[in-house]
């Protein structure tokens, strides 16, 4: 072999940077953010599939992209996992006997459960507020149930005019006009 045709290894330079450590922070560029999400989404789904296969577990992964598109993966499928979770309910947080050695609770699980409970409380508060608005609106339409003593002068005048109109309509109806 000719020594002229063999490349000198000291002259060969790397064309890529190779695998480098990336600082964990939110990506500011929207285009780069979407590309990174797309690449990592497939990796997350692949790892979820491996976990489901290796450990024999049912799981569901639901992701919202930066553009608010929904992506999901489930084993056996997302619907069956969600149905199972909703019918059986979330697992209790503290199931151990207090006499046993304490176990370490995953902070992420506790935070997720706290967020779920907080969302439920917020939804119930909103429901109460909506019902109170409906009640207030209904009170304006059910004027005959409101005690006269609690009515303002403007309300009394309004209802007095309404009663006059009702009386006139009744008289016209009974006299055949």
Automatic annotation (TrEMBL):
Residues in coiled coil: 114-141
Protein name in the entry: MADS-box domain-containing protein
Chief location of this protein within or outside the cell: nucleus
GO biological process: positive regulation of transcription by RNA polymerase II; regulation of transcription by RNA polymerase II
PANTHER family in the cross-refs: AGAMOUS-LIKE 50-RELATED, MADS BOX PROTEIN
GO molecular function terms listed in the Swiss-Prot or TrEMBL record: DNA-binding transcription factor activity, RNA polymerase II-specific; protein dimerization activity; RNA polymerase II cis-regulatory region sequence-specific DNA binding
Record's subcellular location: Nucleus
Pfam family, one: SRF-TF
Keyword flag Nucleotide-binding: no
Entry-linked Gene3D superfamilies: Transcription factor, MADS-box
Keywords: Coiled coil, DNA-binding, Nucleus, Transcription, Transcription regulation
Domain MADS-box, first and last residues per copy: 17-77
Keyword check for Transcription: yes
Annotated Gene Ontology cellular component terms: nucleus
